Amino acid sequence: MAQIIDGKAVSAAIKEQVRDEIARDNIKAGLAVVIVGNDPASRVYVNNKKKACEFCGIKSFEYALPEETTMEQLLELIDTLNADKNVNGILVQLPLPKQLDEKAVIERISPKKDVDAFHETNVGKIMIGNYSFLPCTPAGCMELIHSTGVSVAGKECVVIGRSNIVGKPMAMLLLHENGTVTVCHSKTKNLAEVCRRADILVAAVGKPNFVTADMVKEGAVVIDVGINRLENGKLCGDVKFDEVSEKASFITPVPGGVGPMTIATLMKNTLTAAKIQNNE
Ligand code: NDP
Q: Does residue 204's CB lie within 6 angstroms of at least one atom of ligand 1?
């Protein structure tokens, strides 16, 4: 039976470190969170981010814009935030309403304030291993893997999913730690067979209960990034938890696994951004 990796506990420890450093060194840090429209899930995420800021002693600035916001209005706000000395990090909650070009919005954020690490400049820096911020969800997954005491070096690592936000940077971070990495996607042949090779398996597919026990090697570390809402309103991951936990050595639950880590890394990145900008 697998040990459950407690994302809530690991993320609480990271937020406490951030809070303690901010208090100890009297650091002024500010995060602007921009939300456009009325997506209920986005609203929950933004509220959780605000709560985490409060806990850490980071000043949060919320900009809630109406659904019909134009590109021009949003870019103008980003320009203002880029120039605002009280704002060290800017986060635009995705997804954006259809009329808004997400890529152009991300590119407008100053790379120094891009605490999500989605800007092309930051993505490039991560690729060459010379970065200030790591993308929040993959970095959170790495912390969870570290918390198991299992070393990535030399291990077979399989990532299911190749999105710019999760799958691709996740693969890169595992590679930086000397994992032997395979990235799978919807065109991958013999997916179950590839997954069964994994000592470390990361699922970022967005399909409930996609990873079944027959796809998992005995003793594997299984990280479930998926957040899927079922018809009964319950949240579930990409991994069929009951059966996979019988085979894995470590597994993350949903909720309470990767989710809280994303916010903890955001706090860490905002502190890093503040330290860099306050020293300029
Ligand atoms: P995307 O939809 O952008 O990417 C999904 C990936 O899964 C794609 O690369 C797709 O392949 C692949 N895929 C889809 N179907 C299959 C299949 N049958 N076999 C193999 N691969 C497949 O999702 P995201 O990366 O943004 O998110 C993934 C999940 O993680 C979602 O549930 C999301 O809610 C969750 N998430 C959780 C976060 C957290 O904080 N815990 C943060 C961000 C996301 P292809 O490229 O070929 O289409």
A: yes
